[in-house]
Amino acid sequence: MSSIRPIKHARHFVYNVLQNNQYDSFFSRYIDYFLIFLIITNVIAVIAESVDVWYYPNQIYFDVFEDFSLIVFSIEYLLRIWSVIEERPSKPSWGQRWEWAKSPSAIIDLLAILPSILNFFVVIDLRFLRILRLFRLLKLTRYFASMRILLTVLSKERGSFQAVIFILFIMIVLASSGIYVVENHAQPEQFESIPKAMWWAVVTLTTVGYGDVIPITTAGKILGAVITILGVGLAALPAGILASGLANELAQRREEMEQNFRELLLDEDVDLVQNQARVEAIRCELGLAKEAAQDILLQVIREQRLEKRERAVEKKKNFCPHCGESLH
Amino acid sequence: MSSIRPIKHARHFVYNVLQNNQYDSFFSRYIDYFLIFLIITNVIAVIAESVDVWYYPNQIYFDVFEDFSLIVFSIEYLLRIWSVIEERPSKPSWGQRWEWAKSPSAIIDLLAILPSILNFFVVIDLRFLRILRLFRLLKLTRYFASMRILLTVLSKERGSFQAVIFILFIMIVLASSGIYVVENHAQPEQFESIPKAMWWAVVTLTTVGYGDVIPITTAGKILGAVITILGVGLAALPAGILASGLANELAQRREEMEQNFRELLLDEDVDLVQNQARVEAIRCELGLAKEAAQDILLQVIREQRLEKRERAVEKKKNFCPHCGESLH
Amino acid sequence: MSSIRPIKHARHFVYNVLQNNQYDSFFSRYIDYFLIFLIITNVIAVIAESVDVWYYPNQIYFDVFEDFSLIVFSIEYLLRIWSVIEERPSKPSWGQRWEWAKSPSAIIDLLAILPSILNFFVVIDLRFLRILRLFRLLKLTRYFASMRILLTVLSKERGSFQAVIFILFIMIVLASSGIYVVENHAQPEQFESIPKAMWWAVVTLTTVGYGDVIPITTAGKILGAVITILGVGLAALPAGILASGLANELAQRREEMEQNFRELLLDEDVDLVQNQARVEAIRCELGLAKEAAQDILLQVIREQRLEKRERAVEKKKNFCPHCGESLH
Amino acid sequence: MSSIRPIKHARHFVYNVLQNNQYDSFFSRYIDYFLIFLIITNVIAVIAESVDVWYYPNQIYFDVFEDFSLIVFSIEYLLRIWSVIEERPSKPSWGQRWEWAKSPSAIIDLLAILPSILNFFVVIDLRFLRILRLFRLLKLTRYFASMRILLTVLSKERGSFQAVIFILFIMIVLASSGIYVVENHAQPEQFESIPKAMWWAVVTLTTVGYGDVIPITTAGKILGAVITILGVGLAALPAGILASGLANELAQRREEMEQNFRELLLDEDVDLVQNQARVEAIRCELGLAKEAAQDILLQVIREQRLEKRERAVEKKKNFCPHCGESLH
Contact B239/A234, CB-based, under 8 Å? Predict the structure, then answer.
C-alpha cells in the first residue's frame, strides 16, 4: 500500500494537469501553452518540409524535431489514458480507459502519433506520411471553447445540412447531365461523359468558375446561366444555416443563463454581483463570454427591480378585503 | 364476397407498407431501404452509361438492370394507385385515385417510368432518354423529413424569392444593356448584342467569373466594377432568405411544440417524461429532432416549476398589514 | 355644371381603375394585366432590337410597336396626372398633381416616355436611346407587393448598408494601393497605377475572379491571399444584412398583425374567423400572405383560450374573501 | 490669472468644437465637414499621384496640397491633445492627455501625420510613403455612427470569428497538403510545395477561382470538388455571423430603448410624445435611427394601453358568485 499511494497521488496530479478543465494552476496552464506551441510548430514543419530548398539542407533538424514531437505526443497519450480513471474513481479502470479511447478527442490524439509509429515497421510513402502528420492540427480543437460551440451547432443543424447536401447532390447530377447532352457534340473533349461534366458543374455551382471548361453553344450558355442562377443560392446556403444556427445557439445559451440567474436571485437573497464565483461557474458551463454574462446579470437585476416597482404601483390602489383599510 | 375479402386484406397490407407513414414494421422498412437503394443505383447507372469505356463492354448488364428497375418502379406505381383508396375507405375509390395521381409525389413517380415506357413505342434519342431517367432521383424526396421542411420554407418565402428573382432579372437586363453600349465597339465579337452580353452579366452577377468575356475599355471596367459590387449582394440573397426562413420555421415549430406540451401538462397531470409515446407523436407531426423535443419538454417543465415558486413567494407576503389576516 | 358632372364621373372612374389600390373590378384588373404585358414586351423588344439579324428585316414592326407603346404610356401618364386629384378631392388640384409628379413612381413613369419624346426634337444616339427605354422595366415595381417590402427594408437598414459600403470602399482603396506597391515592378503593364489596380481589387474582393489580372510575385500572392480572406466576408455582407432585415421586417409585421387581432378580439366579441373582410383589410395593409394571416389568427385564438383555461384552473383554488365560501 | 482665463476659454471652445459630441453648433459642424472633405480629397490625391500622366505635369500642386493637408492634420492633432483635458477638468491634465493618446482614434490621427513628418528626417521610398498616407482614410470612422455599431458587433462576436478563422486555417492547410500530394507529379511547376499549393487553396476556398492554377488529374479534380463544396460554406460564414450579429445587436438596442421608455412612462406621467428631448437623448446613446425610436415609443404606449384595458375587462368579472360583492 505504501507504494500505491504515491502512484495514486501522481496519477491524480497528472489527471488534474492534463484532463481536468476545472483545475487551473500555473503549471497546467504552461503545459497547455507548450502543447499548443508544439502542435503549431509541427504543422509549420510539415509545410516547410515540402519546400526542397528548406528541407534538404536542414534534414537532420527536421528529423530530430519530428522524433522529439513524436515522443512528447506519445507520452501525452499514455499519460492521458493512464490518468483518465481519476475522473470517476469508483468505476472499473479498464472499462473507463476503453471508454475514453473511443472518444473523438482520444481518436484524434491516436491518429496524431500512429502513422509515425507505424513508419518504424512499414515503409510509408514520405509525402503521404506528411499529410497524416497534419492530423496533429486537429488536436487544437481541445483548447478552443468557440470550436466546441460550432461543433454543437453543426450536430444540431445536421438535419438541415443533410437536406442541403442532398439538394446540392441532385443539382450537380442534373446540371452535369444537362450540360453533357447539349455540349457533348460541340466539345467532345471537355464534356466527354457525365462524370467529366461534373467538374464543370461543381466549379460553376460553387461560383469558383476557373474558366477551364466553359459552355460554348448557345443552348449550353442558356442552360449554364439558369443553373448558375439557381445554384448560387444553394452553394451559399450551408453558411447561412450555420450562421443562423450559431446565433440561435448563443441566444439559447444566453436565455438559459438568464433563467439560471433568475432562479438564483429568487432562491436566496444572494448578491450575485458580489458572488462572482457562482456567476463564473454558470458562465463556464455555457461557454459564453465574460462580458455577455455581466450584461445579462445586470439586465436580470434591472428587470426584477422594474417588476417590483410595477407591482408596488399596482398595490397602492389595493385595500384589504377584510378590514376595508388601505394596505399602506 | 369470399373473394373480395383477401383482396381487401392484401390492399390494406400494401397500403400500410407503401403509403402509411404511421405504420412501421420490419418488412415496410426493408421495402423502403430497397427502393432507396434502387433509386441511387439507377442514378449511378445513368451516369456510368455516359462513359463509353464503361458502357460498351457491359451494355447487356446495363440494359438488364434498366429493364429490372423499370418493372419494379412500374409495379410500385400500380400498387400505390391501387392501394391508396385505403386512406379514406369511405370515399369513392376512383375519385381518390385521381386525386392521388395529381399529387406532386405521384407525378414524380409517373415521370420516373413514363419515358422508358414511351421508348417502346416511339424512338427517343438515347442521350435525352438518359436525362429523363434522372427524374427517378426526385423519388428520394419522399424519404427525407428535412427535405419537406425545406420545401415548406420555399413555399412560405415564395414572396421574397419572387422579389429577389425579379430584381435579379432587372439587374441582368440593365447590366447587359449597359455593357453592350460601352463595350460593343471595342469587342464587337463578344458584345455583339444584348442577349450575347447577358452571358457576361449572369457570369459576373453570380460571381462565377469564368474570364472568357471581360470588359476591356476603361468605361466598361468602371461599369463592370459598379455592377459587380451591387450584384454580389443580390446573388447571395436567396441563400440568406432561405437560411433565415429555415431558422424561422424551425423556431416556430419548436414554439408550437412548447405550447402543445404546456397544454398537455395543464390538462391532465400526465407525466410527459414517462409518457414518451405522446411526446413522440407531437414530435413526428412537427418533423423535429428527438433531442430538440426532449430539450423543449424539460424546459417547459422547468419553467412551470419556476412560475409555481414565484407565485408561492408572492403569496407568502400576501397578509394584510393592518389586521394581519391572509388576503385570501 | 351639366358639362362638369360627366367629366368628374369619368375622372373618378379613371382614378379608381389606374390609381386606387382598394378598388378592384374586372376592368381595372385587365388594364393592369395589359400594362404589365406591354412593359415586358417592350423590354423584350429592346433586347431583340440589339440583334442585327432580328432587327433589320423587321425594322418596320419594331418601330410601329415602339410608337404604339409610347402612345399608350403617354396616355397612361396623362390620365394618372389628371385623375390623381380624386384622392383627396378637398385639396387644391394643381398642388396635388405637382405633389404626385414628384413621387418616385411618377418620375419612373415620366422617364419611361421622356427619352422617346425628346427623340422627336433632338437626335439621340440610337444605342443609348434603347438603354433609356429600359427604364420602362422599373414601372413593374408598382405591381409587386413583395418589392415594396424589400424597398422598406432597404430604407430601414440604410445605416448598415452605408457602413458596409464605406468599409468596402476602404478595403478597395487599401487593397489596390497595396498590390500596386508590390506588383508594380513585376507587372508594370497590369498594375501601372492605383486606379488600374482597383480593377483587380474589385474583381477579387467580390470573388468574381476573372483571372485576367493576377499577382505573380510571392509578396503579391501573400497580400492577395490575405485581402481575399478578409474581403470574402465583406462582399457577402450586404446580402446577409438584407436577408436578416427582411426576416426582421416580416416578423415585425406578423407581430403587429397579432396585436391587431388581439385588440379586435378583446373589443367586441366579433368572430374574426367568420368576419374575413376585417382580417383581409389588416392583412392587405401589412402586405403579408393570406396563409400567414390565417395561421396568426388561429394562434391568437388558441393562446387566448389557453390563457382563459389557465385562469380558470387558478380560480378553482380561490375562495371569496367576504363570505369565505369557495368561488365555485 | 488674467492671462489664464482666455486660454481656458479658448481651450474649452476648441474642446467643444473638436471633441464634444453633445455640442452641436454651426461652426463645429462646418469644421467636421471641412475635415471629412480634406480626408477624402487626400485619398483621391494619393490615388491620382500613382498615375504618371496626372502626377508629373502637376507635381507642384500635389506637393503643395500635401503640405497644406499635413499642416491642417498636425494642427488638428495638437489642438485635440491640448483640449482633451476639458473632458474631466478635475483630473491631472498630462495623465488625461496620455490616456487619450493611447486611444484607437488618437493613434489613427497620429499615423495619419507621422510618416510625412518622418519623411523630413529620413528618406522613405515614395511609393511606400503614399500607402502610409492612406491611413488618413481611417480618420473617417470618427464621423459615422453605424461604423461604431459594426465595430461593437465585431468585438462581441470575436469568439465566433476566431473559430471560423481557425477552421479556415485548418481547411487551407489540409486542402493545400492534399492537392500537393495528388498534383505534384502531374504539375511539378504549379504544385511544387505546400506553400505554393496554398495559393490554389485560398483562391479556391474563397471561390475567387482565377483559373491560373487548376488540378488536371482525375484524383486532383475529385479532391478539388470535395474541398470546394465543403469550403464554400466556410468562406461565406464570417459574413453570415456578422450579419446576424448586427441584427442581434440592433434588436438588443431596440429592446433596451423599449425598457427605458417603459421605465420612464411608469415613473412620472411624463408625456414622452411631447418631451422629445428625453427620447432623443436615449436614442443618441443607443445610436439608433430616429424613425425606429418613434416606432418603439408608439408601440410601448399602445401596449400599455392594451394591458390597462385587459386589466379593466378582468376586473369587471371580479364579483363573488356567492354573495355578489365585489372581490376588492
Answer: yes
